[in-house]
């Protein structure tokens, strides 16, 4: 089935560690996004990528990094500089960047917790 | 900085229509209205979107007022599995030198509970 796969579903991090969250899509979508969701809150945009080898900061990029070496993959690294990393992380994709008539589709998320 | 206003919670009887309202009085002429829902611990699920005209798909109907300042999502025959948080979103467009992209500005949504 076509879709967006995020892994792992649950992730635990020790203080001072970097961790990488995986996001893969087989929808042949150009644009990919990373959002963060905190309990009882809406989603906030971390980074987005319109095409391969390009990405832009969103509203809360500090303490995060991304890469887009392949069209189907957009991994997110949560670095030790992110002081409050515990959250639910959601990856999304859409067929064409800048086309507001194309919906973003989401994966099932990764829940990151600090040990 | 959500551009929409929704009731915090609603209840609906199983089998009845669920009508979820949304106000977006500051919407611009080229901004679409999107609806997503989120079941606990899952990613948001796309439901429907529209610009001016009413829209219908296999999941729901979207009614947009003529002045586009509000809309209503209609689930025609609600089931227990429709219990979720429903988000009404106005698509925000930003342009860069390499083209356009957009983010979804989620508010807190409406918690819909479908009761047996």
Low-confidence stretches of chain B: none
- The number of distinct helices of chain A, counting runs of at least 4 residues, comes to 0
Oligomer state of the chains in this structure: heterodimer
Total helices of chain B: the number is: 0
Strand content bin of chain B: over 45%
Largest protein-protein interface = A-B, 33 and 31 residues
Structural class computed from helices and strand pairing of chain B: mainly beta
**Which sequence of SSEs, written as H and E, runs from N to C of chain A?**
EEEEEEEEEEE
Give the helices and strands of chain B as they follow along the chain.
Answer: EEEEEEEEEE
Net shape of chain B = globular
Largest sheet of chain A: 7 strands, mixed
Q: Cα distance, first to last residue of chain B? A: 36 Å
Kindly state the mean pLDDT of chain A as a whole number?
Answer: 92
Strand segment count of chain B: 10
Number of DSSP strands of chain A?
11
Taking Cα atoms only, what radius of gyration of chain B do you get, to the nearest Å? 14 Å
Summarize the biggest pleated sheet of chain B.
6 strands, mixed
Helix content of chain B: under 10%
User: Could you tell me the radius of gyration of chain A in angstroms?
Assistant: 13 Å
User: End-to-end span of chain A in angstroms?
Assistant: 35 Å
Poorly predicted regions of chain A: none
Features:
heterodimer; A: 115 residues; 7-stranded mixed β-sheet; 4-stranded antiparallel β-sheet; 11 strands; B: 116 residues; mainly beta; 6-stranded mixed β-sheet; 10 strands
Folded structure, characterized:
The complex is a heterodimer of chains A (115) and B (116). Chain A has strands spanning 4-7, 10-13, 19-25, 31-37, 43-49, 56-57, 64-66, 76-78, 87-94, 105-106, 110-114. Chain A is mostly beta strands and 115 residues long. In chain B, a hairpin with a 2-residue loop joins strand 8 and strand 9. The mean pLDDT of chain B is 89. Chain B starts with 8 loop residues before the first strand and ends with a strand. Chain B is mainly beta and 116 residues long. Chain B has strands at residues 9-13, 18-23, 33-38, 45-50, 55-56, 61-64, 70-75, 84-96, 99-104, 110-115. Chain B is globular and about 40 Å long. Chain B has no helices and 10 strands. In chain B, the strands form 2 sheets. In chain B, strands 1, 3, 4, 8, 9 and 10 form a 6-stranded mixed sheet that branches. Chain B has a 4-stranded antiparallel sheet with strand order 2-7-6-5, with no helix packed on it. Classes of the chains: A mainly beta (115), B mainly beta (116). Chains A and B meet through strand 4, strand 5, strand 9 and strand 10 of A and strand 4, strand 8 and strand 9 of B.
């Amino acid at each position: 089935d076509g879709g967006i796969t995020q892994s792992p579903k649950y992730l635990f991090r020790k203080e001072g560690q970097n961790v990488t969250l995986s996001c893969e899509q087989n929808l042949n979508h150009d644009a990919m996004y990373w959002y963060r969701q905190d309990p009882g809150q809406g989603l906030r945009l971390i980074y987005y990528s319109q095409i391969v080898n390009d990405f832009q900061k969103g509203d809360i990029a500090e303490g995060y990094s991304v890469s887009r070496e392949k069209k189907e993959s957009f991994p997110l690294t949560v670095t030790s500089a992110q002081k409050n990393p515990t959250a639910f992380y959601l990856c999304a994709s859409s067929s064409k960047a800048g086309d507001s008539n194309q919906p973003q589709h989401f994966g099932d998320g990764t829940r990151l917790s600090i040990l | 900085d959500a551009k929409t206003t929704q009731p915090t919670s609603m209840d609906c009887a199983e089998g009845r229509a669920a009508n979820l309202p949304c106000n977006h009085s500051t919407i611009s002429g080229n901004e679409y209205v999107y609806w997503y829902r989120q079941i606990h611990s899952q990613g948001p699920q796309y439901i429907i979107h529209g610009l001016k005209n009413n829209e219908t798909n296999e999941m729901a109907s979207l009614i947009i007022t003529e002045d586009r300042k509000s809309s209503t999502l209609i689930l025609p025959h609600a089931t227990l599995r429709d219990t979720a948080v429903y988000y009404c979103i106005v698509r925000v467009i930003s342009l860069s030198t390499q083209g356009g992209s957009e983010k979804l500005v989620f508010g807190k949504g409406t918690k819909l509970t479908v009761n047996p």
